[in-house]
Amino acid sequence: MTRDPVILILEDERAQILTLRAQLAGLGKLAEFMDPQQALAHARAHACDAAIVDVGMRRSAMDGLSFLREVRQFDRDLAIIIRTGSESDEITNGAIEMRAIKRAVKSKTTLAELRLSTQEAIRETRERRKLSRNARDTEEAKTQLAEALGSYDLRLAAADLHRGLVHGMRNQLTALSALASLLQADAAASRREDFTAHAARSAELVGRMVDSVNAFLDGPFAEGGANARAAVNVCLGALRQFFRGVERWAAEGKRLALRDLLSDTLVDCLPLELMNGLRHLVEYLFLLAPPGAEVSLSAAIVHSGAEMAGMLARSPCVLNRGAIRPDRPYVVFRASALLPGTGLDEVRNAFEFDLRSGRTGNLNVLDRLLSAAKGAILLDRQPSGVLTIETLLPVAL
Predict the structure, then answer these.
(1) Among 6, 56, 137, 320, which is least packed by CB within 10 angstroms?
(2) For the purposes of burial, counting CB atoms within 10 Å of the CB of 133, is it exposed (0-12), middle (13-18) or buried (19 or more)?
(3) Backbone CA torsion sign across 9, 14, 20, 22
(4) d(CA 88, CA 78)
(5) Per-residue pLDDT, 155
(6) Which residues of the chain fall short of a pLDDT of 70?
(7) 153-171 confidence digits (pLDDT tens)
(8) At residue 140, what are phi and psi to the nearest 5 degrees?
(9) Angle of helix 271-288 relative to helix 152-190, nearest 10 degrees?
């Protein structure tokens, strides 16, 4: 059931409010005010369906046009009727600028005209609000879809699903391969040329398919053994391409400056997991950064235990310190941005409590990668406001 309309009335004379109360009886609930500030507070807190506003309020520092201007700061949809004792064009022009729908001259507007104008205002407000709500819903859906389609979270899930389907296909192909062998044996026994040719083509087809599927499953995205390794420069290159295509950050003027290794190396994690973790790390900094900011991401290698000990000693905050093995080389992914208002506690809590959960900037994704790859995080904040997050992952030996 549609709720009763709410009509806001702003009039600084009590007699005028009583007159309007009688004239508008039956059209809806009236919210009556003689103070513009109180009327503003009500309009901010409650959705009204129409407003009737007196322009010349001698008892207040704010007149009706100023009230309209304030309302339009937070409500573009409310249909407003202005009431005035003057027919001045200046008042009319000011009201039109503030999107008032009608002017009611007190001495010339009949009861029927005022009621009709109020009913039209209610209808227009509700239509405007419906259009605005539909536009917001559409834009939100577009944004969610764009983020989902561009999300390495979704790509990672899709890759897992696809890999599972291909595993199932390999099982089916194994059965087909066995059947092809039986067909060839039967064809040889039958000595029929057409049957023999068919069996040979079947065996060749199944053989090619089995080889292709095995090559895919044993390729760079395979699980376990030597395949559970990510090529650093290859992953960073894919990340560079990803951020070039994200309109959200381009619209905010935010950019990624990326520098990879002089020569590529492997780290002990799956490629998609590395790209996913680094993508969330960069987007976390993008979320904190002001428009036009630059986030830098670079890769370097820590070769010696002494160099690693120095890094750990200099860092004011180390996460997952116990995973570090001084006898192994590590790749350091160093992400930094100028974020004067962000402290180390906020970043540490984002890892632990998932303060920015969702598809964008979720540091828990990187935390899970560290646990799987036995890596660590170093946090630092300079007096200049530059925040640095260093991700350490062991080099694959």
Answers:
(1) 137
(2) exposed
(3) positive
(4) 24
(5) 53
(6) 1-2, 86-101, 135, 137-171, 174-175, 214, 216-228, 245, 352-359
(7) 445 545 555 555 666 666 6
(8) -65, -45
(9) 160
